[in-house]
Amino acid sequence: xxxxxxxxxxxxxxxxxxxxxxxxxxxxxxxxxxxxxxxxxxxxxxxxxxxxxxxxxxxxxxxxxxxxxxxxxxxxxxxxxxxxxxxxxxxxxxxxxxxxxxxxxxxxxxxxxxxxxxxxxxxxxxxxxxxxxxxxxxxxxxxxxxxxxxxxxxxxxxxxxxxxxxxxxxxxxxxxxxxxxxxxxxxxxxxxxxxxxxxxxxxxxxxxxxxxxxxxxxxxxxxxxxxxxxxxxxxxxxxxxxxxxxxxxxxxxxxxxxxxxxxxxxxxxxxxxxxxxxxxxxxxxxxxxxxxxxxxxxxxxxxxxxxxxxxxxxxxxxxxxxxxxxxxxxxxxxxxxxxxxxxxxxxxxxxxxxxxxxxxxxxxxxxxxxxxxxxxxxxxxxxxxxxxx
Length: 389
Known about the structure:
The chain is of the alpha/beta class. The protein has helices spanning 14-22, 24-28, 40-49, 67-76, 93-101, 114-158, 211-229, 235-249, 326-329, 340-348, 356-371; strands at residues 4-9, 32-37, 55-59, 83-89, 106-110, 173-180, 188-194, 199-207, 256-264, 269-275, 281-283, 289-291, 311-314, 320-324, 380-387.
């Protein structure tokens, strides 16, 4: 047990004997450790040497540096876990009041009632313990905040951020994406990768939950889907293999919804599989907005040995595929109204001639305008793919 360190500052020499005699049991048990100084200057010297003094018991009227001046110097140290108990004659209430107004924890009058002083010291110790615990918790929170900031940067770095991603095909296609977490880190992700000369894989996904657990599951899910997808499996086969791997390792019943499509740059054909995810939209060149069929497949990460059904769609020149997570359609405003698919479709119907980035920006701006002053309740991810030729 670390002793409570108490500094007594008084020019009356007999106080040292009184304190050591009265608190002898606590001193022997290692509960208290006393230090002594005879004026403010000596006290400052002790404080420089002993960095962890907890309580200062100081007389007000002393030579060289009085107690009020010492109290001012102690306040300059800005240590809320150091408590000062001021001592003066009973009739010296003006100085005692000044000391209390300047941050003294408590006071005692001479002749000192040692029983009362013992109670005052115990009260000070309770305050000091509370402050130290609060400081420790604050330090832990600051450390966690710093860690989350780093985790945010790492997560953003995991996601592809170079656009256009396939400059060699820039005249044939356009592609853009963003992910905005509701907290420091999120569970949504998007991905895209080249499978062969003519085909690219596109993924949007949403992990259950938020925060750090979702972010870790997100990183694992993205790595698995990308690794399996790069082997050239059909979307359904890719999700089946990914699901089997995730189900074997899932903790706390976490799962992920996934839309995975393979887009043929030359023909505009989209082979896709939807694992319990929101249905993307095809935004036709003439402004029509067509949702893809509702998912017939299960979410990933819950049950092994499931089959995942492949489907097809066709993008003609000027058409766009808009993928998103439920942070968009399930966004709520201050009146707890939901953004909904109708608002999404209304916005998308006005941007058919825009670039993918402009489509995403328009949908995000409308969502945030709808949310207003309400806090973002879920991660928001949007990805758009346009056939240009």
